[in-house]
Amino acid sequence: MPRSLVPATMQAAVVHETDGPFEVLARPVPDVPRGHVLVRIGASGVNPLDTKIRAGVAAHAEHPLPAVLGMDMAGVVVQVGVGVTRFEVGDEVYGLVGGVGGLQGTLAEYAAVDADLLAHKPKRLSMRESAALPLVSITAWEGLIDRARASSGHKVLVHGGAGGVGHVAIQIARAFGADVYATAKPAQFDVVRSFGATPIDYTASTPADHVHAHTADEGFDVVYDTVGGATLDASFVSVRRYTGHVVSALGWGTHSLAPLSFRGATYSGVFTLMPMLSGKGRAHHGHILARIAELVDAGRLRPLLDTQRFTLGQAADAHARATSGRAVGRVVVDIA
């Protein structure tokens, strides 16, 4: 689309101060630097981290205010910058693209996005469904595949199996041939089963119980902690001796490595925001999302979406829903 056909201004939800309200304002449509594309955003995914950034309690993911928040999106390419060869005007794309480190977020009608961060969106999914996937899918993939090399024959334990990262991690591990177990509350068992995992009631059993019941006291080959805190400590005593691997997407606290060391096992942390914050390794995010789209289109992965819908003017309501504990699945804001 020629620049002359792109509007000069767009609507964007702006937060001016820590824990402040959203204000929908007219802002200039951004220019398109070399290596970037201009995307007309169809939907913006809401992550718990978005709400923490807004509240000023995510030191590892600071975003200077005033700012447009929102990390995940799906949309249509309307302009292609110099040097971009993978995308053309009219392509439907999705990605984890902003809302942190000074990069414009996705609660806006348009965004200029580093093309390396993008992939063609899954053909089977709507914009809304696609926007629910980037952050959680990349986080799950980096832990399970890049770090732990989960594969056929492995027993994988996912902590928080009904959560955003957890429900995708179950499906990725299953797609790679693993036998998957997932901790959850009893009310979430049907969700966990629907994605192909054996549910474990963490409220009524101990790590030793899990290991005894499901691995004959050998331990799980891969344990993915998506919860953090005491759950990471529990992961260290649930993993297989010598060859087991623990992965955590929330390993921010102080933990004793002795239980892991005494099992001769290994640990990896996942920090999904690094490519956006550092500018390094961004193309790998695009590659992961391309693989995720293949799994979706093959019928092997699907997002779990909350049923409530929100518009750009209801961004505050979407944030409230995401932190309420009542959402069943991912919260998404419809932009277009």
TrEMBL record:
Superkingdom in the source lineage: Bacteria
Pfam families, per database record: ADH_N, ADH_zinc_N_2
Compartments where located: Cytoplasm
Major localization class: cytoplasm
Keyword Cytoplasm: yes
UniProt domain Enoyl reductase (ER): residue ranges: 20-333
Membrane-spanning segments: none
Keyword terms, alphabetized: Cytoplasm, NADP, RNA-binding
Subunit structure: Homotetramer.
Protein name (record): Zinc-binding dehydrogenase
Species whose genome carries this gene: Variovorax ginsengisoli
Native organism taxonomy: Bacteria, Pseudomonadati, Pseudomonadota, Betaproteobacteria, Burkholderiales
